[in-house]
Amino acid sequence: MKTDKSLSVEQRKEQRVELRLPSKLGFEKIAMQTAASYAAILGLAPDRVEDLKTAVAEACINAIEHGNHGDEKVVVGVILTIDHRRLEVKVLDHGSGITHAVLPPDIDKKMLGEEDPRGMGMFLIEALVDEVEWVSNPPEGSYARLVIYLDREKR
Amino acid sequence: MKTDKSLSVEQRKEQRVELRLPSKLGFEKIAMQTAASYAAILGLAPDRVEDLKTAVAEACINAIEHGNHGDEKVVVGVILTIDHRRLEVKVLDHGSGITHAVLPPDIDKKMLGEEDPRGMGMFLIEALVDEVEWVSNPPEGSYARLVIYLDREKR
Amino acid sequence: MQSETSVKVEQLKTAAAAQVAVLRFHGDITSTSKAAVLDAYRGLPAGTGRIVLDFSKVDYLNSSGIAILIQLLMEGHKTSQSIHSFGLSAHFQKVFAMVGITKYTHLYPDEPTALASFA
Amino acid sequence: MQSETSVKVEQLKTAAAAQVAVLRFHGDITSTSKAAVLDAYRGLPAGTGRIVLDFSKVDYLNSSGIAILIQLLMEGHKTSQSIHSFGLSAHFQKVFAMVGITKYTHLYPDEPTALASFA
Ligand SMILES: Nc1ncnc2c1ncn2[C@@H]1O[C@H](COP(=O)(O)OP(=O)(O)O)[C@@H](O)[C@H]1O
Ligand SMILES: Nc1ncnc2c1ncn2[C@@H]1O[C@H](COP(=O)(O)OP(=O)(O)O)[C@@H](O)[C@H]1O
Known about the structure:
The complex is a heterotetramer, with two copies of chain A and two copies of chain C.
Chain A: E1 17-22, H1 28-42, H2 46-67, E2 75-83, E3 86-93, H3 107-111, H4 121-128, E4 131-137, E5 141-149
Antiparallel strand pairs in A: 1-2, 2-3, 3-5, 4-5
Chain C: E1 6-13, E2 19-29, H1 34-42, E3 50-61, H2 63-78, E4 82-86, H3 90-99, E5 106-108, H4 111-116
Parallel strand pairs in C: 2-3, 3-4, 4-5
Antiparallel strand pairs in C: 1-2
The complex binds adenosine-5'-diphosphate (2 copies).
One adenosine-5'-diphosphate binds at residues 62-63, 66-67, 93, 95, 97-98, 118-123, 142 of chain B.
């Protein structure tokens, strides 16, 4: 067998799960399901699993579209870990990351055509998870780090 | 960012998806969901998605239990690819693999206590997918390679 | 890619004999759904005043899909159409409220309520 | 680990006034379910002759779980109990047939049929 070099024997942290996807829109649905079943196994409440699914999907879409510019050969990484009942999801891309602040959508402006109808992904991520951080470290890449608390009521 | 070294920029094949799990029973459910959503995206019929889910779960259970001896720090790898409408799943462990043939369960013998009630995983995998291969290559590890055809009717 | 959007258009009359166009979405609503969603909407007969959006068969909805719905609602708002929605999960009802589009389409628990509530 | 197995035991009478014990499984049936499944079964009153297994609330079933069911069926077979099952998805009906255990528990489409079909 030509062993996949990247499949290291030892993991740094227990219960760590990693996923890699091609940068192709639609594949964020895989990350969504992977994260959902990880969270369900750890006992996250069903409504919070839904929050996590949407947040992970939006982070992956951004990694695919903005970070990796839709180049299917470039990988989006998703790393799931649990520590002190905090579920963490890192979504990694190979772009230069985010420089601006997250703005909440102004629906009235959107309705008047004064604001792009898009631009809600980061806002939704912030609204749905308990902690979020965007880290950029070119040329290595960037990531969004989402944290959801297992013991917190719904948002 | 301390970039995960193993997250390589280039993938060898388009639409390749990789998953790594700790060797902990229960985590095969994540592989099952990841494979299911990959297959659904590619258009596999829902009843064949169910076949794939059971086959992937059983292969992961074997990798966890027999290949990696339930050592949570050791990784089970799952690699999903598609080629010529053949969906391939490789389930990798760090054990020495399989030496014996797959025997169909004899339910009457099991009922009489003459055969272990267990020992149906490999049989089910063979019965549910279109192709299966067990490859061992110590000390690097072993893998089960399952193939399901997108255009084939149910088993 | 599976789960392409399809939209079925139906013309119904409410109990009060009001004419309503129902757009029934199937599959995913994402960035690739623009033509399917907006073409179905724009293909409604001129003068359509009451519209119901049926989300009960939608598998997956993301922010790019919501952006398309905002475009639809924007066009409807300009022509003073009344647009009701139903069939969203509790989660997506929350997401619609977070984004603010519940200001432009009221969410109803089911089809009869969505139909009955036209003025 | 979530989705531990739980088993609810009910005593019912069929239309023909036959006494039936129903084991309703909830959650996953896997290698960790052995005590839950077999304790519930072994806790049935002595002389129980008719048993129904309700799989309709089972989320996940794997070969180790099936091995536990085989043990249950083995014990039932020894004491000539009649064991009917219902609530399996089409997929798991197929899996049960592949493994051969449909020889020892007949699968019914729903609870009324499973109950009605006791001799
Ligand atoms: N992973 C990323 N890498 C680089 N830029 C990003 C990333 N995610 C978001 N952005 C930037 O932030 C903007 C806002 O993102 P978002 O709120 O998700 O809305 P949208 O993706 O619809 O534009 C994007 O248009 C992009 O410029
Ligand atoms: N990945 C693996 N690595 C090493 N041995 C394996 C592996 N998978 C299966 N085996 C061997 O094959 C046997 C039969 O496996 P299986 O049919 O799945 O039943 P069970 O796991 O219930 O014993 C196992 O008991 C084990 O000895």
